[in-house]
Amino acid sequence: MADSSILELPDNYTLHFVGKTTSLKLSPHSKIRLGENSKIVFDSSAKLIMNYATLTSKDSTKSWGGLFFKNTSQDTISNSKIINSKGGINFIDKIGTHTVIKDNEFINKTNEDLDGIYAYNSEKILIRGNHFYAQSTGAFNNAVYLEYCTSNDLNVLDNNIEDAVNGIVDIGSWSY
């Protein structure tokens, strides 16, 4: 998407990117407004590059579904805003390539409890310098939730977590 462009998705819609030749690049100041329960899916090496962009709900009091990554390539989400995402950012079976989630704001403006970042059976993810906070009566269930991830280059560093039931949850992931 070009600098400062806006895309709106309707309620209950899935925007699905599949294959290593597909990608979504969000240029600075671009914005995607998602309808309630809508989501964006990246599968089979599809890629997201997002820098100084915003993903938000069309209705500021409601949530949208989230970003879902499965078997993806080198994704970068930096200096951006993720607003009112019920599912946050989700990685399932992300093995082999590096992903950076750095210096973002995860903001909850709803009265719901949302999730920030979830990773299952994944590796090579840098989660650094992000800020999780609420601007309403809602909160975050989990800011970062890691489940059965390998210790292979999985780093959670220097994040600022406010308004969360659980800051960082790790279930069977790292070898100590």
Oligomerization: single chain
Q: Give the DSSP E fraction (strand runs of 2 or more residues).
A: over 45%
Rounded average pLDDT: 93
> How far do the termini sit from each other?
42 Å
Please tally the helical runs, counting DSSP H or I stretches of 4 or more residues: 0
Q: What structural class is derived from the secondary structure elements?
A: mainly beta
Segments where pLDDT lies below 50 for 5+ residues? none
**How many beta-strand elements?**
20
Strand order of the largest sheet: 1-4-7-10-13-16-19
Q: What profile does the largest beta sheet have?
A: 7 strands, parallel
The percent range for helix content is under 10%
The run of helices and strands is EEEEEEEEEEEEEEEEEEEE
Computed over alpha carbons, the radius of gyration is 15 Å
Question: Which term fits the overall shape?
Answer: globular
Structure description:
The chain is an all-beta fold and 176 residues long. 0% of the residues lie in helices and 53% in strands. It contains no helices and 20 strands. The strands form three sheets. It has a seven-stranded parallel beta sheet, with no helix packed on it. The chain has a seven-stranded parallel beta sheet with strand order 2-5-8-11-14-17-20, with no helix packed on it. The chain starts with 5 loop residues before the first strand and ends in a 5-residue tail after the last strand. The model has no long low-confidence stretch (mean pLDDT 93).
